Amino acid sequence: RRPPRSTLFPYTTLFRSEGWFRDTLASAPIDRLAILRLDGDLYESTMDALTALYDKVSPGGVVIVDDYGILESCRAAVTDFRRERGITETIYRIDDSGVHWQRSAS
After folding, report:
1. What number of other Cβ atoms are within 10 A of residue 103's Cβ?
2. Which of 30, 48, 58, 95 sits CB 3.0–4.6 Å from 22 for a disulfide?
3. What is residue 106's predicted lDDT score, i.e. its pLDDT?
4. In b/e form, how buried is each residue of 45-79, taking b as 16+ CB within 10 angstroms?
5. Conformation bin of residue 18: beta by default, left when phi > 0, alpha when psi is -120 to 50
6. Helix, strand, or coil here: 85?
7. Distance CA 80, CA 14 (A)
């Protein structure tokens, strides 16, 4: 399915998957990501997405998480994932809801 015309990226660089994260992301045909944007809302879906896709984010790539600022379950998943993986890059607030961090080279 093609993304909306308002998208700023060429269609060939975007991947869209429908279904539960736990059922679709681990087998998604994705090798590398420059930008990982998550809108999982809940603890399980946010953790599933980070677990399946974080290692595919290129060094210098950006992880964007919606709802971090407004949903405790989302924030807890991000906190737990980062703690378990030893991720210490600074989290920057985008707005009241979203945050992002840039993956380090290591």
Report:
1. 19
2. 48
3. 63
4. bbbbbbbbbbeebeeebbbbbbbbeebeebbebbe
5. beta
6. helix
7. 28
In the 3-class helix/strand/coil scheme, how is 23-51 assigned residue by residue? HHCCCCCCCCEEEEEECCCCHHHHHHHHH
What is the pLDDT confidence band of residue 3, given thresholds at 50, 70 and 90? Answer: very low
pLDDT value of residue 46: 96
Give the residue, 96 or 18, on which the prediction is more confident.
Answer: 96
Average pLDDT, stretch 28-40?
A: 89
Residue with tokens 């679709």: 24
User: Crossing angle for the helix pair 43-53 and 72-85, nearest 10 degrees?
Assistant: 30
Contacts of 35 (CB under 8 A, 6+ apart): 61, 62, 64
CA 80 to chain centre: 14
What is the enclosing helix (H) or strand (E) of 60?
strand 57-65
